[in-house]
DNA sequence: GTGGTGCGTAATAATTTGTTTACGCACGAC
DNA sequence: GTCGTGCGTAAACAAATTATTACGCACCAC
């Protein structure tokens, strides 16, 4: 079972066409940041910001390597994930969310 | 297979703790709008706005009924959904997204 | 009439997210 | 030295989302 805050993080990370595009590119194999930026047509700082969200959600990882030319290249890799969502899963995850508890309503409104 | 824009709509709708809470409440059975608002502790217009997003994503439906007291009651029901997400599913959905196509990078960057 | 319940919508404000520009570092090739 | 490649970050700005307040409609009970 997934924790509520983790679920929110993952869903939020995925709820962006730009980030989905980035994941799609990376699903075909790891890329270094500048290449990824060129691929998806975004500026480097923007890719940086998006990657930060994907990483925080655990959807990508990155490692820095030295290229033959002496460049510090930051390679980004998709972390394999499998997320199954149903209303029941949502309800269970929400139960672990910090914050306001649902208020008990009387049962007579339930039909 | 899910269409890209539909996926974005669903993920965006779910990427909100408030809306997840609403879904969790509704997963336990349908509620009318004011009751739902009280349950999640939000103002009615706000619930309205959130419901609009959930409905646009096909995650809830609503119907208006007349109560015994003559009130027009708007009942909201969760639409059963099952969403399975993996990097491959994302990539396939992204391929159907309108907008900038991924640019072909030469293969030499791929290691 | 007042007060309670329900409903939808508009306008406005506040907050969050997204994006660009700019700065500066590194290395190697010329 | 300049120019090309790579990198991270900050600041400023724009856009989008979220939330509140207000308005007005309906019905019923008293």
TrEMBL record, chains A, B:
InterPro entries: ArsR-like_HTH, HTH_ArsR_DNA-bd_dom, HTH_MetalResp_TranReg, WH-like_DNA-bd_sf, WH_DNA-bd_sf. It comes from the Bacteria. Keywords: DNA-binding, Transcription, Transcription regulation. Residues 1-93 form the HTH arsR-type domain. Pfam families: HTH_5. This is HTH arsR-type domain-containing protein. It comes from Asanoa siamensis.
